[in-house]
């Protein structure tokens, strides 16, 4: 499924099977989870995609062959490919363990063709071996919803009372990790989203309400997964002095002005950008121990436009996943 121009629907096309270069893997894709970032790319809110582009950055598949110099994987190995596709490896950010901030970073399904296809190539250094116990369809959402969610959760420190704004793919994974860590989770959804609220309760939220409500207890921290800038003042109002609000999305609508007293009291407002390979290694080690269980809504590859429309309309429960290889079902 190919994006020719921002603002246009994806088109089903026959393309040559890509050839892996040095250090790259050729992967036969089994499944690729959809992500709100894909919507931001299609809608032109992320402005520098490679065009034409094969989107998709939560790829699960098996190695077919590889280019020269590959030592980490062999044909037949199952691998996961995340958003972070490459970095320069030598800038100050890369050297300081912040490769997610590298100015030369390239991202899967944005600068590099991704997983809305039968085959993909990826740099072996940025691929992950996937834990046993997760089928291909269940593993795919771990590669962005899980990884970005985990990085966001880490940014909340030891917060015991945690608010989550926007109960989608990332939230339904991270609430499981947070509960496993012994935290209380307060879930905020769009007003009237009773199905999402019930889903949050089933996963262990101690309180569920609309995003414009205040929780019954003051929060230690909050994570905003929804790309809605108006949630920033709402979350700041809900956290205690010294609390943290983490904006987890790669794109957010403009944040409205708000009175300084919402930030005062040493509250912290911060963003999360991309992920590091360390995030992936840590999260994929933790996920089987929780154990994380991903709820997936399946679509055939050729229904990618329908899947993205359902995501935009709030009609996906858990994570939407494109089934590329029917043998994965």
UniProtKB/TrEMBL annotation:
**GO annotation, cellular component aspect:** cytoplasm
| Keyword Zinc listed | yes
Cofactor(s) essential for the protein: Zn(2+)
Q: Enoyl reductase (ER) domain: from which residue to which, for each copy?
A: 7-322
GO molecular-function term, one example from the UniProt record: metal ion binding
What keywords appear on the UniProt entry? Metal-binding, Oxidoreductase, Zinc
Q: Name one Pfam family in it.
A: ADH_N
Q: Where are the transmembrane segments?
A: none
Which EC class, in a word? oxidoreductase
PANTHER family in the cross-refs:
ALCOHOL DEHYDROGENASE 1-RELATED, VACUOLAR PROTEIN SORTING-ASSOCIATED PROTEIN 11
Q: What family is this?
A: Belongs to the zinc-containing alcohol dehydrogenase family.
Q: List the protein's name.
A: alcohol dehydrogenase
Q: Which organism is it from?
A: Geomonas limicola
């Amino acid at each position: 499924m190919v994006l020719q121009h921002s603002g246009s629907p994806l088109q089903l096309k026959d393309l040559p099977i890509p050839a892996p270069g040095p250090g790259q893997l050729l992967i036969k894709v089994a499944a690729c989870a959809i992500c709100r970032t894909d919507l931001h790319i299609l809608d032109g809110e992320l402005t520098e995609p490679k065009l034409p582009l094969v989107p998709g950055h939560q790829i699960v598949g098996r190695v077919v062959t590889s280019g020269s110099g590959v030592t980490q994987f062999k044909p037949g190995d199952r691998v996961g490919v995340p958003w972070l596709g490459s970095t320069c490896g030598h800038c100050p950010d890369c050297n300081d363990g912040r490769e997610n901030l590298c100015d030369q970073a390239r991202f899967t399904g944005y600068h590099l063709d991704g997983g809305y296809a039968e085959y993909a190539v990826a740099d072996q250094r940025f691929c992950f071996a996937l834990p046993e116990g997760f089928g291909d369809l269940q593993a795919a959402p771990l590669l962005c919803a899980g990884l970005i969610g985990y990085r966001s959760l880490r940014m909340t420190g030891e917060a015991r009372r945690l608010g989550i704004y926007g109960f989608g793919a990332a939230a339904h994974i991270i609430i499981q990790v947070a509960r496993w860590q012994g935290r209380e989770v307060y879930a905020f959804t769009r007003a009237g989203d009773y199905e999402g609220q019930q889903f949050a309760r089933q996963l262990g939220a101690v309180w569920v309400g609309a995003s414009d409500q205040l929780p019954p207890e003051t929060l230690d921290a909050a994570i905003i997964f929804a790309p809605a800038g108006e949630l920033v003042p709402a979350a700041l109002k809900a956290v205690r002095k010294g609390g943290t609000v983490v904006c987890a999305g790669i794109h957010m609508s403009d944040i409205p002005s708000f009175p300084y007293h919402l930030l005062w009291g040493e509250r912290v407002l911060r963003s999360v950008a991309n992920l590091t390979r360390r995030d992936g290694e840590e999260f994929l080690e933790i996920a089987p121990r929780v154990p994380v269980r991903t709820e997936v809504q399946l679509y055939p590859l050729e229904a990618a436009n329908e899947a993205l429309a359902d995501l935009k309309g709030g009609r996906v429960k858990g994570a939407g996943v494109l089934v590329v290889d029917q043998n994965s079902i």
